[in-house]
Design a protein that fits this description.
- The protein folds into 2 domains: 9-165 and 297-345, Alpha-Beta Complex (Quinone Oxidoreductase, Chain A, domain 1), CATH 3.90.180; 169-293, Rossmann fold.
- The two termini are 28 Å apart.
- It contains 9 helices and 17 strands.
- The chain is an alpha/beta fold.
- 22% of the residues lie in helices and 26% in strands.
Length: 348
């Protein structure tokens, strides 16, 4: 990790905690189970990280509900990890013990394929993902590939920083896909939207927030964060949009967003999973409107977003849960009871 000041791996202390607590998904569709596991040992290019906080993401619900392909069980979810480096593998250089790092969704790639060699590592067919194909941060310790860890701006606490590592990153990539759009609709005003709304405001864009129908509290939250308009996803905006970003995993929102977008506009689908998109007339797409999905993220996205987050002080609205309350956090996220982001704060 160029630019990180530190000590040589051989000078780092060897971690001696032999066991750890984790919340583990044993089988699809079941609640997470509290388990005691052996503390993982870092490989040559890995870091052993003491988890300080881990965000709770809707993708974790998709993992629990087996809505993503190829999940291996048991798995420890969690991919918005803020932690402290405890030990480094023999090939890691330049990261000091005690450094605070972030571990995002993208855990590793092959580095050799067409996508990896054309700055599109987010599309690598051999990519591995934290909390999905690699054990994640619903635990006291985690191992992560040092090359895929991120530097976190010092201005954010551990709890504040956790949602930046997915809600912020994916939201940032989705906003980049929207291009220079000035009037931006955000469908699903949760963890990602509440961060991206603030970035839009800082960039001189106008935000139109779409919440669950009847969610007056969520609409008020959006207005407090600078939304020019807030209403239910079943309502049309007061004027047409240049672009719409859909964070909610609801395919029926795609035709609705197209109808709310002016000619030449774009609808960006930002989720990793979405229910089926219903058929709609070609006239809704005509006029050079377009639909684009956002898949994962790149390390370049991570570096760019963290620089932006250092420059623009984001108000991170986080509801904090203990590690052992991970199931409660997931269910409250599912029911729409979380305003902003949910975060597990790990205490030893």
């Amino acid at each position: 990790m160029p630019g990180w000041r530190g000590i040589a791996p051989e000078a780092m202390p060897v971690h001696t905690v032999l066991s750890m607590k984790a919340m583990c998904l044993q089988r699809a569709g079941e609640p997470l189970v509290a388990v005691v596991r052996s503390t993982p040992v870092p490989g040559p290019r890995q870091l052993l990280i003491e988890v300080l906080a881990c965000g709770v993401c809707r993708t974790d619900l998709h993992v629990r509900d087996a809505e993503l392909p190829g999940i291996r069980y048991p798995i420890v979810p969690g991919h918005e990890i803020v932690g402290r480096v405890v030990q480094a593998g023999a090939s890691v250089q330049g990261i000091a013990a005690g450094s605070r790092v972030g571990v995002p969704w993208l855990g590793s790639t092959c580095g050799k394929c067409l996508y990896c060699t054309s700055r599109r590592e987010n599309l690598c067919d051999e990519a591995r993902f934290t909390g999905y194909s690699i054990d994640g941060g619903y635990a006291e310790f985690v191992v992560a590939d040092a090359d895929f860890c991120l530097r976190i701006p010092e201005r954010y606490s551990n709890v504040e920083a956790a949602p930046l590592l997915c809600a912020g990153l994916i939201g940032y990539r989705a906003l980049a896909a929207a291009g220079s759009a000035r009037d931006v609709g955000l469908y699903g005003f949760g963890a990602a939207a509440h961060l991206i709304a603030q970035i839009c405001r800082a960039q001189g864009r106008r935000v139109f927030a779409f919440t669950r129908p009847g969610d007056r509290a969520g609409q008020g939250f959006a207005r407090r964060l600078g939304a020019a308009w807030a209403g239910g996803s079943d309502e049309p905006p007061p004027e047409l949009l240049d672009a719409a970003i859909i964070f909610a995993p609801v395919g029926a929102l795609v035709p609705a967003a197209l109808a709310a977008t002016r000619k030449g506009g774009k609808v960006v689908c930002a989720g990793i999973h979405m229910s089926d998109i219903p058929s709609f007339p070609y006239d809704a797409l005509w006029g050079e409107r377009s639909i684009q999905s956002v898949a994962n993220l790149t390390r370049a996205d991570g570096a760019a977003f963290m620089k932006l987050a250092a420059d623009v002080r984001l108000e991170v609205d986080a509801q904090v849960f203990a590690l052992e309350a991970a199931n409660e956090a997931l269910e409250r996220l599912r029911s729409g009871e979380v305003e902003g982001a949910a975060v597990l704060e790990i205490a030893r």
